[in-house]
Amino acid sequence: MSRPRVVLVGPMGAGKTTVGALLADGWGVALRDTDADVEAHQGRSVQEIFVDDGEPAFRALEREAVAAALAEHDGVLALGGGAVMDPATRDRLAGHTVVFLRVGLADAASRVGLASSRPLLLGNVRGQLKKILDERAAVYAGVASAVVDTDGRGPAEVAEAVRAAL
Ligand code: S3P
């Protein structure tokens, strides 16, 4: 059984996928991303799944995608921002090397962009993001073995900080 070298968690706009790609490149390993896994498995975008089937259905698919990736993948794993809200997923993360990429509202909003197509942000990017950051901050910190601040930092600098934190 493989295990990811590092699991990246944090909200939308934290840079999980971008930083994960840099880390994976540097180590010569693959990046796996649970949003992409769900989309590939379903043949639909995350947005389509939310609209067609609702958020609970997406969360069930996400839970299975995370479980599979944690058991199979030995590179870098980026989790969808809401994955850690699931108690079974939090239990599965115990014992893994989990890095929380922390981001404040201003940087998160500017990274996702005002025209974000993420279903949870539709119509009110800043307002929804603020709510999500407030609700989840303690949960991300609770599953993390290390926390890396990303505000004001570009992806290469964040990737270096992650390597230094391991
Ligand atoms: C979500 C984050 C998204 C995606 C979905 C829900 C969330 O992933 O899974 O839109 O609940 O925070 P990213 O964090 O990769 O954008």
UniProtKB/TrEMBL annotation:
* Entry keywords, A to Z: Amino-acid biosynthesis, Aromatic amino acid biosynthesis, ATP-binding, Cytoplasm, Kinase, Magnesium, Metal-binding, Nucleotide-binding, Transferase
Q: Where is this protein localized, as stated in its record?
A: Cytoplasm
The Swiss-Prot or TrEMBL record describes its family as follows: Belongs to the shikimate kinase family.
**What is the annotated quaternary arrangement, including any partners?**
Monomer.
Q: In which pathway does it act?
A: Metabolic intermediate biosynthesis; chorismate biosynthesis; chorismate from D-erythrose 4-phosphate and phosphoenolpyruvate: step 5/7
Q: Which HAMAP family match?
A: Shikimate_kinase (MF_00109)
Enzyme Commission identifier(s): 2.7.1.71
Q: Which Pfam families match?
A: SKI
Q: What is its main location?
A: cytoplasm
Q: Name one GO molecular function term.
A: kinase activity
Q: How is the cofactor bound?
A: Binds 1 Mg(2+) ion per subunit.
- Write down the Gene3D superfamilies for this protein, in alphabetical order: P-loop containing nucleotide triphosphate hydrolases
Cofactor(s) annotated in UniProt:
Mg(2+)
Enzyme's top EC category: transferase
Q: Which residues bind ATP?
A: G13, A14, G15, K16, T17, T18, R118, R153
Note the superkingdom of the native organism.
Bacteria
Identify this protein by name: Shikimate kinase
PANTHER family assigned:
SHIKIMATE KINASE, SHIKIMATE KINASE 1, CHLOROPLASTIC
Q: Which reactions appear under catalytic activity for this entry?
A: shikimate + ATP = 3-phosphoshikimate + ADP + H(+)
Task of the protein: Catalyzes the specific phosphorylation of the 3-hydroxyl group of shikimic acid using ATP as a cosubstrate.
Q: Which InterPro entries match?
A: P-loop_NTPase, Shikimate/glucono_kinase, Shikimate_kinase/TSH1, Shikimate_kinase_CS
Where substrate is bound, by residue?
D35, R59, G81, R136
